[in-house]
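Ops channel
N.P.: pipeline sanity check, posting one input/output pair.
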């Protein structure tokens, strides 16, 4: 078809790309005397779905005018080589799609630059009531004459938020690319909103930073993982990633659309990180072990304001809740003066807050023990206290005290892990926030058991009470303590969706 003129205006020069919707040609605009990109979509007689998709793409794209969106200038229908086709005339971006660079971790600063520009494009689209529905590297073009500027293209499966009178998606049959689909998109929901695009952006960011998408496998396996599995923290895949950037990606990949940041908030946070990373534009990618793994992350954390405010607020709040609860527990169950109960409660609350402010928890890695230094120290103190109490009150039970000192620590760590997971999955909290609540639960339980011990309750009764009190106190603290939520698992859908790459 090279040399053929479409609609009496666009002379085809060479094919430069193809996808599920059609073929893109470099073409000469005979009227304006310059080259453009012309998308050609073959349609058969009665092919209403494909024609509707095209008309929606043209209508949506024509509404967008933004430096980081490929502009659409003309569209229509024509005959080409005896066949009916639809065509879309767009700006010709002289560069390469972003997916030609994927497959390996890319420099952090460069990745942030592109992510900011893509966020700006999505922000403009969402402001106009448009959901792209398929942000992915192959739909991002890097304009080399403009210094590698990212431009979002191909709104072929985009959908107007307010266009409720029609849809090209049947419930249970998602349209999009599996590796970048949001959970709601993977389920085949027809009421996708802007948060779906932000989830896809999180997948794209994960791929640029780690060298791979969050989930891999066959089409159905990937969709199932999007709906039910939490992604691995970026720091486990690429040491040195700034904690704030890792946290942002995890928030973008939240299973709950309501908890994902908006495009505007994402852009602002990425811009803040980019400013802080200005001195580290050549951050290590392929061989991180040649440099200290936390050097970049530590410097960036300091540049953006030190420890995360959310951790400080949660630690102080959990400490206050613990202090108030223990004071009340001791006041109701002992004959101690109010001054003493208040002092002991305050001491426990201050200890909890101090431990977490002194050593703020980091996102856990798969190869690490998922328990913070603060929680581990508290469990060991509890074990030592019980051992000492047995030796003082009944020296003849030295064998029991020895068993407690040897086995008590590992047993309590295992139980603490179970309590933390209970808080994570029941209240959908991040691991560090659940760990904080678990440590508070140990302090609550210690105060109550000490009181019960002085009342003369037998050891088995105290053990049973502790097993119930610890998770109860942890859940109570977590409910009263502000903290960021982790992605929650959606219900499994037993269907076999059909996917369509664009």
């Amino acid at each position: 078809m090279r040399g053929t003129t479409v609609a009496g205006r666009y002379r085809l020069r060479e094919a430069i790309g193809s996808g599920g919707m059609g073929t893109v040609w470099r073409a000469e605009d005979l009227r304006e005397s310059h080259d453009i990109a012309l998308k050609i979509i073959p349609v058969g007689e009665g092919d209403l779905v494909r024609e509707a998709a095209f008309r929606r793409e043209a209508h949506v794209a024509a509404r967008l005018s933004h430096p980081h969106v490929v502009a659409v200038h003309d569209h229509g229908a024509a005959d080409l080589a005896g066949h009916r086709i639809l065509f879309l005339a767009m700006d010709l971006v002289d560069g390469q799609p972003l997916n030609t660079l994927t497959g390996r971790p890319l420099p952090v600063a460069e990745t942030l630059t592109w992510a900011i520009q893509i966020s700006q494009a999505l922000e403009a689209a969402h402001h106009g009531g448009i959901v792209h529905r398929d942000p992915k590297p192959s739909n991002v073009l890097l304009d080399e004459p403009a210094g590698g500027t990212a431009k979002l293209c191909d709104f072929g499966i985009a959908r107007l938020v307010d266009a409720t009178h029609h849809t090209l998606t049947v419930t249970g049959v998602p349209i999009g690319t599996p590796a970048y689909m949001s959970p709601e998109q993977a389920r085949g929901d027809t009421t996708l909103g802007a948060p779906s695009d932000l989830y896809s952006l999180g997948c794209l960011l994960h791929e640029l930073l780690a060298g791979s998408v969050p989930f891999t496998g066959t089409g159905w396996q990937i969709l199932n993982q999007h709906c039910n599995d939490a992604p691995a923290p970026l720091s486990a895949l690429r040491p040195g990633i700034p904690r704030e950037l890792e946290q942002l990606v995890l928030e973008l990949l939240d299973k709950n659309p309501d908890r994902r940041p908006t495009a505007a908030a994402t852009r602002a946070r990425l811009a803040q990180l980019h400013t802080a990373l200005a001195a580290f534009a050549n951050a290590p990618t392929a061989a991180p072990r040649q440099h200290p793994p936390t050097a970049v992350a530590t410097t960036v954390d300091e540049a953006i304001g030190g420890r995360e405010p959310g951790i400080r607020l949660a630690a102080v709040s959990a400490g206050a809740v613990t202090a108030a609860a223990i004071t009340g527990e001791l006041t109701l169950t002992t004959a101690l003066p109010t001054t003493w109960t208040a002092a002991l409660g305050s001491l426990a609350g201050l200890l909890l807050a101090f431990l977490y402010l002194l050593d703020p928890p980091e996102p856990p890695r798969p190869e690490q023990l998922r328990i913070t230094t603060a929680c581990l120290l508290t469990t060991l103190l509890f074990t030592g206290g019980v051992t000492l109490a047995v030796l003082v009150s009944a020296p003849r039970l030295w064998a029991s005290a020895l068993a407690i000192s040897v086995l008590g620590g590992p047993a309590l760590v295992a139980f603490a892990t179970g309590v933390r997971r209970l808080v994570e999955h029941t209240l959908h909290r991040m691991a560090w926030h659940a760990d904080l609540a678990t440590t508070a639960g140990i302090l609550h339980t210690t105060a109550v058991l000490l009181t019960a011990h002085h009342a003369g309750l037998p050891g088995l009764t105290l053990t049973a009470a502790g097993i119930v009190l610890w998770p109860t106190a942890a859940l109570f603290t977590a409910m009263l303590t502000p903290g960021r939520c982790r992605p929650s698992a959606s219900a499994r859908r037993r269907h076999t969706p059909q996917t369509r790459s664009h």
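N.P.: looks fine end to end. The longest strand covers residues 10-18.
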